[in-house]
Structure formats: C-alpha cells, structure tokens
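Quick question about two entries, pasted in order.
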Amino acid sequence: MTTHRILTPDVARGIMLLAIAVANSVTVWATNIDNPMVGTHIGIVMNDSLWDKIAIMVGAMFIHVRGLPMFATLLGYGMGMILVREYHRKNPYKRILARRYAALAAMGLIHLVFLFFGDIMFMYGILALHVTMIANRSDRVLLTVAGVLWVAGGGVTAALTLLGWTGTSAYGLGYVEDQLVMGETFLMTFPVQYVSSATTIMPAILVGFVAGRRGMLETPEPYLRIMRWWAIIAVAVCFIVGIPLGLASMGVIGGELVWSAINRVAGLVTGPGLVVLLFYLSRWLQQHHKQHVLPVRMLVALGRMSMTGYVLQSVLFTALVLPWGLGLGSGSGAAVAMLMGVAVWFLTLIIVYAWSLTGRRGPLETIHRRLGYSRPTTALRRYNGRS
C-alpha cells in the first residue's frame, strides 16, 4: 500500500475540520443577539474594518458551502472503501455499513441535542443508511440519482435563500434556550430537515461512494482526467461564485441574496474537486518526503480522529466563545470570528495530536467501533482504521 492511499483521506479530513470550524464560528458560534447578523449570514463588517472585509471575501471563496460538501464526499468515499473490503472478505457488507452508520447517527443525535444544534453527524449517518440500501446499484444509477437530487435540491435551496431563510439562530439566552430548545426544534422539524439534506448533501455522498468503490485515490491513473475536471469545477466555483458573493455581502455590488443562492447551490458540487486538490497536495507531500514532518503528522492525526476532533470543537466553542462561556469573540466582526474558528481548530489539532502519541484511537472513534460492530474482537482486528 502506498503512502498517499492513507495520507489523502486523513489530510482532507483534517483540513475539512478547519473549514467547518471557521464557517461555524462566523455563522453560528460567534453570533450574538446583542449584535445580530443580517443579510446572507456570512459575517459582520464592524466600523468599516478592512480585516472584516478580507475575512468575508476569504470565507465567501473558500469556506462557506465548501467544508460540508467535502465532508459528504469523504463520507461516501469511506463507505465505498468499506464495501469493497468487506465484499472481498465475503462479509455481509450491507449489515456492516448499516451498523456503522447507525452508530454514527446515534452519536450525532447526542451531540445535536446537548452540544451543538448544527451537528452534521446525525443527518449524515441517516443519509449513509439510505446509501447502504442502494449500495449494490450500478455507478450509472447512483450518479443519475445524484444528478436528479442536485437539481431538485438546488431549486429548493435557492428558493429558501432568496426568501431570506438561513436556518441559524444567535446565541445569548443561555444553555437551555440556545442549545436544548434549538436541538429539540431540529428533531421536531426532522422531516423537513431530512428532505433538505437528502436533496443537497446526498449527491456528494453518492459521488464519493462511487469513487470509493472504484478506489480512485488508491489507483488514480485511470481517473486522472475526470479528477482534473472535478478540481477545475471546484476552483471555478470558488472564484466565479465566491468573489461576487463576497463583494455583494460587503455591499460593493448588488444582488446579495441572488449570489448567496447561487453559492449554496454551486457550492454543493465543490466537494469532490476539493478532495482531488487535497489528493494532489498529499501526493506532492509524499513525492517530496514531507509526510513525516510535524505539521503533516498533526494533520493526519486529526484526520484519523475526525469524529473526536469535530465534537471537541463544540466543547471548545461552548467554553470559549459563547456568551455564557468566556464570550471570546461573541458578536464580533468577521475577522475576529474567523480567527476564533482557526484558534479552536488549532487547539483541537494540538489536543488530538497529543492523544495520538499515546498510541490509542480517539475516544469517540473507539466508542463508534464498539457500537458499530457486532463482534468487536474480530471486526476491529480486521479494520485498519483508514477509511
């Protein structure tokens, strides 16, 4: 097995967590009812601050609706890898996938209710269970379903955005109202949330699943052309859509809601391309023997413990940023909010890397494996932890 087969998914997950931390910091964690955000909800410009404007531009191009599609692609890719591995071992791959992602959904549910109402593990686990049901369908069928869902979801998402819906809420009322009530509200509106997620996130999961079944990152040579096209699409969306969105969000040009709607739809297709770009980065690191330098080792450790890292972000944001915590950066402009997101991600990077030095798997990864396999002593021995 070559190094990049392991390095690419882990590097991608580590960087994905940075994008998620920054996006959530700006649009959720740092929001405050005393200084509400208006418009498309991608950051506040305080006192005409140049730094806030730069942060909004960076966020519009590289952060907002970038991390989650990449997460969805990686989730699907991991599912495809597991299916192929268990199929060749003549194991009941559908049962293994179902248990694994039911466990993910269960852990996400706890996170959603008690720590962060914007949790993605619960819904992504549910969507993964649906992919399991059609896991033996052909690539053509799965990609057709992905295309139909993207068109349908794009229309719904664009309409909701143009109507001013953001799906978020500012903090400042205390744990019960800010978190528990919002978490319970999500559960009560689950059917609506499910339809929205199934038509927007599912396409990236399906594309990643097809790529994982084919082993595109492990044996990229037959797929280099399509991978380049995915990368080109991702870069094009970042610049062609991201720049106007940033300018519109600052009031330099008009059509803020229109560009936000376009970004919410077009951004959904950036996931595969961003993973490809990180594949190129990982391959470069391997070719230049950089995979063992400390920053890369830390990033890989975070990628391998991405579930622990993701939930740890919620703990740190709650303690450091929320008004009923230390309140650092709460209600701030886009630059400070983005800086807090980077700081929280960096803290998770340090903590997770320190944990990895003990030689143990992440705490949540360990729990997930125990929940996700019917015979842990056998299944965990077979599972190498790289998917």
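Here is the second entry:
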Amino acid sequence: MRFVKDPCGIICLIITYIMVIYADYVVMRWIILQTMQANIWAPLHVVSFNTVVFLLAMSHLKAVLSDPGCVPLPANRLDFSDMHTVGKSTGNGNSSNEWTVCTRCETYRPPRAHHCRICKRCIRRMDHHCPWINNCVGERNQKYFLQFLVYVGVLAIYSAALAVGSFIYPCEGCNSENIEGQTRLLHCVILLIESALFGLFVLAIMVDQMHAILYDETAIEQAQQKGSHRPNRRKFYLLADVFGRGHPACWLLPCTSFNSSSSALRYYDTPLLSHEV
C-alpha cells in the first residue's frame, strides 16, 4: 500500500468523496424518500444505487493505494554521475524497446517506464499522473482507474435519471411554494449539474484510456509520437493485459487479478542490475 503526499491530489480526493456522498444523500433523502415512499421500486433503487457507490469507492481506493508499477530501487547505490552529461536520450528513455537509465532515480528502468516528478519514482508503462486518484496511472493500477471511471459514469447517469424522474413524478405535497419543496428542487438541480459535469469529464478520460489500451500507446508515448508497441495483437488480449485473464464478466470487479502472461510480471521477476560503487 502506498499514499502520495501531494497537496493537490489530497484536495482532489476530498472533493471526490464529498461529491459522491452528496449525490448519495440527495438520492436517498430527497428523491427516494420523498417521491418513492409507497413505491415498490424504492428498495431496489436503494440497493442498486448504493451498490454502485460501493464499487466506485472500492475501485477508487484500489487506484489510490495500489502500487502503479514503481521501478524498485537497487539495494546498492549506483554511480551514474557521468550519465548527467550524456545526451537527453539516455536519461529520458527515448528508446522504447531497451532498458534505460533514470538520472533522477539513479537506477535502471525497463522499456516504457517513465519518471513521475510528483511521485518521484519511475513508473512502468506510465500513462499519466492523475490528481483525482492522487497517484500515477501505470500498469498495475490502470484496471482500477478504468473501473473508477466506469462507476462514476454509471452513477452520474443513474443520479440524473432519478433526478429527472422526480421532476416528472413529484411527491404529493411537495411544491415550490413550501420550504421542503424548494429544498428538494434545489438539491435535484445541483445533482443534475454535478452529474452532467462529472459524466462528461469521465467520458472524455475513458475514451482516452480505451484508446491508449486498444492501440497500446500511453499518453506519454502519444505525446512523444513513439507509436504503438504491439500493433498485431488482438484487441481482446490488449484488454486482458490490463483487466486480467479471468472471465470478461469479472473485469469490472475491483479485485486483484493474476495475469501470468503480462509483460508486467516479467519485469517484476527481472532483478535490477546491482553494481557496487
């Protein structure tokens, strides 16, 4: 378990949970209890909505606390003092198919690993550093990050649908002339705005993440115009590298999956070179 002590990331974490808790409060208190008291669908909505909230929280916590794929530091100090004067291609890892040297971490790193200035570590198959999970998105937590995006999108659609339904089928005695009716209306409008903003936001990120997986090109590699790494592989196997070799029905469960054929396992089983100075 790891936690990055970044002020911006911690603030984003707090905002995320405030928004989720607020959405759950509005749906439970001002929509279901107000408009579905005598409705047979009320218990179903309570269970299903809170199930989505639970899965969202679990996937988010896994993305926040999981190791994204930090390149382990060597047991013995390595001397890379002369590497600082060599061209940038050596220090920044422009060669995508070879082990390179990170002059910041002062260690060797495998192909497709990049240094994160916030985490202060090299991350295997790093896509980007996301403040909303206060962590890097790498080869070991990209699955949980995608799950988080999916559940935020589902929760946004679910919340918006319930809010619109409360306008179409308002509760008896709830009108804009009394305080309770005005309060319910205000909460539902805020919930609709929140759902629209977060829904569109995660949709854009989700499209970008799926493009990165299906074309095997991270955001950093796309910016550096390195191109795809395995263009001949089937899309299903590219998805399986991220979500695991289990049944696709289990891909949205925020649990650890063992991926025996992943390149990540090969890298983690490969010891770093250790030269004493």
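Reply: The CA atoms of residues 20 and 53 lie 7 Å apart. Residues 23-70+141-265 form one domain. Hope that helps.
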